[in-house]
Amino acid sequence: AVNRAFTKITGYSENEVLGRNPGILKSGRHDREFYKSMWSSLTQDGEWQGEIWDRRKNGEVFPKWQTISSVRDNSGCLTHYVSVFSDISQLKESEEKLYHLAHHDSLTALPNRLLLNARLELSLQQAHRDSTHVAVLFLDLDNFKKINDSLGHSSGDRLLQLVARRLLLCIREEDTIARLGGDELVIVLGHLDDARHAETITREVQDRLSKPFELEGQDVFLSASIGISLYPGDGRDTTTLLKNADAAMYMAKSEGRNGYHFYSRDLTARASNSLSLETSLYRAVEREEFFLQFQPQVSLQSGDIVGVEALLRWQHPEAGLVPPARFIPLAEDNGLIAVIGKWALRTACMQAKAWQNAGLAPFRIAVNLSERQLRQGNIVQDVRDALEDAALDPCYLELEITETSVMKQAEHAAKTLDALREIGATIAIDDFGTGFSSLSYLKRFSVDRLKIDRSFVRDIPQDANDVALARSIVALGHSLNLSIVAEGVETQAQRETLTSIGCDEMQGFLYSKPGTASELASLLKPLARQAC
Ligand code: C2E
Ligand code: MG
Ligand code: MG
Fold this sequence. Notes:
Elements: H1 4-10, H2 14-17, H3 32-45, E1 47-55, E2 61-72, E3 78-87, H4 89-103, H5 113-130, E4 133-141, H6 144-151, H7 153-168, E5 176-181, E6 184-192, H8 197-210, E7 213-215, E8 218-220, E9 224-231, H9 238-254, E10 260-262, H10 267-287, E11 290-299, E12 305-316, E13 320-322, H11 324-334, H12 337-357, E14 364-369, H13 371-375, H14 379-390, E15 397-402, H15 403-408, H16 410-423, E16 426-432, H17 439-442, E17 449-452, H18 454-457, H19 464-479, E18 483-486, H20 492-500, E19 505-506, H21 517-524
Parallel strand pairs: 9-10, 12-14, 14-15, 15-16, 16-17, 17-18, 18-19
Antiparallel strand pairs: 1-2, 2-3, 4-6, 4-9, 5-6, 7-8, 11-12, 11-19, 12-13
Helix pairs in contact: 6-7, 9-10, 12-14, 14-16
């Protein structure tokens, strides 16, 4: 006998099953052993209970929870079996959902730390068996916090989802990408015959992330710092490998952003070194360990020096001269750039005035502004103060802003540049060509000069593509009334080509390396008087 629920669950009517063997419900999912043990407990204990997969009439396989009891008459003779079951497919589904919830990050649907540990453990066991390598990549987005703060958290969330999607394109199915929280992600590459493969994937990850992300109709730029540890060389268990990849990531960050770094044993020592770099940066501000160097910018037509760029230097008491690429990202992160940048601005203006007072013909002085300075509200006031304190005519001050930092905060930057220009200063776009802006986009900004990035100048004239690129930057720039400076000019051949394509000015080792104020003064003597 069967009841209505049986018909409803299995799809078989009473007529179809009466008199037949329950075996018609078999799903084929269980082996003979399964049924054998079921029957043996039925004969021995008179009862069986468990989860079993059956097949509905429409062919669908489903899980059910089933109890079977034997029924005996007064004389102890077996007469019937009674089976009670319930369809547990929904329960199973929510169990799976629960499992998924407990093991995945709800925002990106990537595995979380719990699942990461399990998967990494498994990869290590496999690698041990097959004598292969496993790479652990610890990834931290460099500027995520800024984007989150400026565009809002829902955009930040959306960005993380887009990042997760792009990262998934870089790996094989058997690899794992997990989100540990915030903007920290870990990639596990299992089964590597060659550990160098980790580097290839790392580059691809950085490459993919460097393409702009579209958020609310705006292009947003990201970069990531990545630390890599390898099994078995850098550790044999999950905890050590993760810890070492994390330390390597910090190294990558301290060397500037958008880099990667392999873990190496001396890293632990160096990581604490970089910590002390940060503390000594605080000290450097108090002890005034900074100074400026100056590099001339030369007219390609007349050969005259028409300006100088002020470049920041840090004389560390023990480590010696620390290049700006090393400490400026650090200062941007911890906010010290506000103080250091203000100092550079003031000192540069004072120096320009000092040269003028010494009887040299006046020329413009260019000061670099970092992204964070541009974003903070008081930059316009800082510039005003610096000019006033030095009594320098604003027309001699130029502010260099990198292309990417302008693009990253387009709306805000446009207003700031307008305000700076109203004061009377000029604006140059630094490292032009390395970002993703178009020249037509630049029309929206008050800009006077473009500095073609060194990377495009390097292979001129051998690389025809670079020559063509430089030529079109010059042509388009001129059509927007911008003057063009080529950065990093090192050879006479570069100079000649740049002159022939109409570039206005050059800056680079060919004419002079950055030097101290007095070194510069000796170059400046023959200068003809320049109009503002
Ligand atoms: P940048 O503004 O693009 O400066 C040009 C960099 O190229 C300088 O490096 C300069 O020494 C180097 N350079 C000049 N000519 C040549 C050449 O012919 N060949 C080669 N290989 N290199 C050349 P430096 O001084 O290390 O500065 C690096 C970056 O640090 C600057 O790039 C700028 O973005 C930043 N920076 C420097 N001073 C300051 C500052 O006062 N404030 C801020 N916010 N950033 C600064
Ligand atoms: Mg510059
Ligand atoms: Mg530059």
